[in-house]
Amino acid sequence: MYRRPIVSLIGNGDEITLDGVGSEFTLKPGMTGTGTAPREITFSELAGGGSMVRHRRNTNMDIMIPVDVFHGHGEDSYAKLEDSRRRLEHICTDQVEIRLQTKDGYRSAFGYLKDGLEGDFAKNVVNRYRMNLAPTFVCNDTWWYGEEHVLIQKVDAARKPFLTSFGGTATIPFFPVVLASSTVDGAYQLDIKGDAPAWPIWEVIGPGEDLLIENIDTGERVFIEGEFGEKVTIDTKLGDIYSDSFTRGELWDRVSRDSDLFPLTPRLNQIKITMVNARPDSEVRLKYRETWRAGH
């Protein structure tokens, strides 16, 4: 049986949901662009005939969302239609999150309004109660992203008496507070779904020093020397490490030469986190969104 998609448009601090059940904003049939991104492929001709592939890449996605706006049959319906269009225009001022609900949650693409809201207000009005719009968004990031997962890791509570009585240095393992899966041999098992690697954001909150984040299977690691006072963010997608006080790359001087801001690949990942002189209030947060080729 056909199931009408539920789509949300999120931007500029506001959100509207096109739920298909006759509310103010309703998704009409005909939405396009929610599958895989278009592909650009270039070839070189061979002297003996045929050709060879030289280059392949995804190109920008255009997502068109037909919207029906309806405001009953009241005397003020026409004015409400104007307000609804202004609200949609406000959402589309800058980058817009286009969120599609799925059986497992939702997937999101991020784009900018290309067309569909320009021109005179009256041309989109069907009658004084209804207006049809078809905004099209261009997405330069050609992937879809699942819900954000947040995993908080702290020092193992069972070791707290040892920590509070300790006067020297010690390398302390971190363990998940909210377990995404089991912990084995000091590393937790993180099962990543999706069609492509997920690029995590690590947030490190001291006290502590000499942080090591390591992928046990691949040997990839991030090692940051020195003390952690304020929160330090390691953004692997942006390829940057920063804090509120150090925003211009100064923290890279503390990163070891063999460090790699590694992604989480779609499989079981064994991740180990340790820090010297960590305390029970020390914390490492992992944030990531699984990556998909299509929105469904």
Architecture overview:
The protein is mainly beta. It folds into 2 domains: 7-142, Elongation Factor Tu (Ef-tu), domain 3 (Beta Barrel); 148-292, Jelly Rolls (Sandwich). It has 2 helices and 23 strands. It has helices at 77-91, 160-164, and strands at 7-11, 14-18, 25-27, 39-45, 51-58, 61-64, 67-70, 96-102, 105-115, 125-127, 130-133, 136-139, 144-155, 171-176, 183-184, 187-191, 201-205, 209-215, 221-227, 232-235, 240-243, 268-276, 283-292. Strands 13, 14, 15, 16, 17, 18, 19, 20, 21, 22 and 23 form an 11-stranded antiparallel β-sheet that branches. A hairpin with a 2-residue loop joins strand 8 (96-102) and strand 9. The protein is globular. The model is unreliable at 157-168 and 176-185 (pLDDT under 50).
List keywords for this structure.
296 residues; eleven-stranded antiparallel sheet; mainly beta; 7% helix; Jelly Rolls
Structural class: mainly beta
Helix content estimate: under 10%
> Major sheet: size, sense and barrel closure?
11 strands, antiparallel
The CATH architecture name of the largest domain reads Sandwich
Mean pLDDT: 85
Topology pattern, helix = H, strand = E: EEEEEEEHEEEEEEHEEEEEEEEEE
- Cα separation of the termini: 16 Å
Low-confidence runs: 157-168, 176-185
**Basic shape:** globular
CATH class of the largest domain: Mainly Beta
Number of domains: 2
Radius of gyration from the alpha-carbon trace, in angstroms:
25 Å
Number of strands: 23
In DSSP terms (H or I, runs of 4 or more residues), the helix count works out at: 2
Share of residues in strands = over 45%
- What fold name goes in the CATH topology slot of the largest domain? Jelly Rolls
